[in-house]
UniProtKB/TrEMBL annotation:
Coiled-coil features, chain-numbered ranges: none
Keyword presence, Transcription: no
UniProt cross-references to InterPro entries, sorted A to Z: ADH-like_C, ADH-like_N, ER, GroES-like_sf, NAD(P)-bd_dom_sf, Zinc-ADH_QOR/CCCR
Enoyl reductase (ER) domain boundaries: 10-333
Top-level taxonomic group: Bacteria
Name of the protein in its database record: NADPH:quinone reductase
Keyword match NADP: yes
Organism of provenance: Nocardioides kribbensis
Pfam families: ADH_N, ADH_zinc_N
Entry keyword set: NADP
Length: 338
C-alpha cells in the first residue's frame, strides 16, 4: 500500500511517499480502506515538534473516512463493507490516515450514516469531537440531542474555524441560541452559513455590548480558541455559574484570569484536549456527532461555512503547509475514489 510518512521531526519536507506491506488487524482491531483523510493543525504540530512517542515511522493524520475491508478476532461491531469515519486514528500508534489503509481499534471506528459523504466523514474527528466536549462541559448539558440546549445561549469564539464551525452547527442542532465572534466580513459569511444567529465583528464593534444585547443576563457557555486574548471579554459576558471551555492556546500560551470577577460569578473554567478526554467522553461524542450527521445537522462545503480544499495523498506536505498557513475551511487528502 502507498503511504506518506516521516521518520524525524521537521518541516513538511520530511514527509515522503513510500510503499508498505498491507497491515493486518489484530484482536479487537479493524482495517479501513481510506477514501478521504482530514488534515488538522495537530498533524503538522506533531510532525514539527516530534510529539509521536517512540515510533520510528509515522503516517500522520487523526481523521479519515472510508470502508472496512478486514476485521480482527473478536470484533462484532463492524463488518467488511461498512462505511465509517475515524477518531484519534494516530493517537498512540504510528499508522494514521495519510495512507491507503489503516488499522484501528474498533472503538475508534464509527459508522458513517447512509447518505453522508466521505468528505464529511473525514471532516468530523478532531473538530466535531472537540466541539462536542466544549458544548457539554457546562453544568446542565451532559449529552447533545435536539432540544438538549434549548433556552441556552452559547458564545463561540472564532466561528469561522473548524472547531468553531462544528460548535455552531452542533449547538444549533441542540436548540441553543448561538453568538459568534469573527474578525471580518468573509468570516462572518462563513459563520452565518454555519447557522450562527448573531455575529459580532470584534474588530469594529464593542463586542461585550453586542453580546449583552443578545443575552442581558449573560451567556451560558463560551467555546474559546484564544483564552489569552479573550478571557476578559469571556468573563464579562458569562452569566453567573456559566462555563468557559477552552481548547487551544491561539494568541498566547499563558492567560491572566480576572480572579475576583471569576469567583464572584461562580464560573467554571474547563480546559479540554481530545487526546486525554478518556474513552467514555470520546464514545459519547462519537454517538452524538453521528446522530447529528444522520439528522443532516452537520455539513461541510462552502454552503455550510466550511470550504473544502482537496489534495492528493502524494501532496500531503502541501496539505500540511496549507493548514499551517491558516487555510480557511477543511483540508482533505483524496486517497481513493468515493
Amino acid at each position: 500500500m502507498r503511504a506518506v510518512v516521516y521518520s524525524k521531526p521537521g518541516p513538511s519536507s520530511v514527509l515522503e511517499v513510500v510503499e508498505r506491506d498491507l497491515p493486518e488487524p489484530g484482536p479487537g482491531e479493524v482495517r479501513v480502506r481510506l477514501v478521504r483523510a482530514g488534515v488538522n493543525p495537530t498533524d503538522w504540530k506533531f510532525r514539527a515538534n516530534g510529539m509521536n512517542g517512540d515510533f520510528t515511522e509515522v503516517a500522520p493524520g487523526q481523521d479519515g473516512a472510508g470502508v472496512v475491508d478486514a476485521v480482527g478476532e473478536g470484533v462484532t461491531t463492524h463488518a467488511v463493507g461498512d462505511r465509517v469515519w475515524l477518531v484519534l486514528a494516530q493517537s498512540g500508534r504510528g499508522l494514521g490516515t495519510s495512507t491507503q489503509h489503516t488499522v484501528q481499534l474498533a472503538e475508534r471506528v464509527v459508522p458513517l450514516p447512509e447518505g453522508a459523504s466521505f468528505d464529511l466523514g473525514a471532516s468530523l474527528g478532531v473538530p466535531a469531537v472537540t466541539a462536542h466536549r466544549a458544548l457539554t462541559a457546562g453544568e446542565t448539558t451532559a449529552r447533545l440531542a435536539p432540544g438538549s440546549m434549548a433556552g441556552q445561549t452559547v458564545l463561540v469564539a472564532g466561528g469561522a474555524g473548524a472547531v468553531g464551525n462544528a460548535a455552531i452547527q452542533l449547538a444549533v442542532w441542540a436548540g441553543a441560541t448561538v453568538v459568534t465572534t469573527v474578525s471580518g466580513e468573509e468570516k462572518a459569511d462563513l459563520a452565518r452559513a454555519a447557522g450562527a444567529h448573531h455575529i459580532v465583528n470584534y474588530r469594529t464593534s464593542d463586542a461585550a455590548a453586542e453580546i449583552r444585547a443578545v443575552a442581558p443576563e449573560g451567556v451560558d457557555l463560551v467555546v474559546e480558541v484564544a483564552l489569552a486574548q479573550n478571557v476578559g471579554l469571556d468573563v464579562e459576558v458569562l452569566r453567573n455559574r456559566g462555563t468557559l471551555a477552552y481548547y487551544a492556546d491561539n494568541g498566547g500560551a499563558e492567560a491572566t484570569v480576572p480572579v475576583r470577577a471569576t469567583f464572584a460569578k461562580n464560573l467554571r473554567l474547563q480546559g479540554l484536549l481530545l487526546y486525554t478526554l478518556g474513552a467514555d467522553l470520546v464514545q459519547a461524542a462519537a454517538e452524538d456527532v453521528t446522530a447529528a450527521v444522520s439528522a443532516g445537522a452537520l455539513r461541510v462545503g462552502a454552503e455550510a461555512g466550511v470550504p473544502l480544499h482537496h489534495y492528493p495523498l502524494e501532496e500531503t506536505g502541501a496539505a500540511h503547509d496549507a493548514v499551517e498557513g491558516g487555510a480557511v475551511g477543511k483540508v482533505l487528502l483524496d486517497i481513493a475514489e468515493a
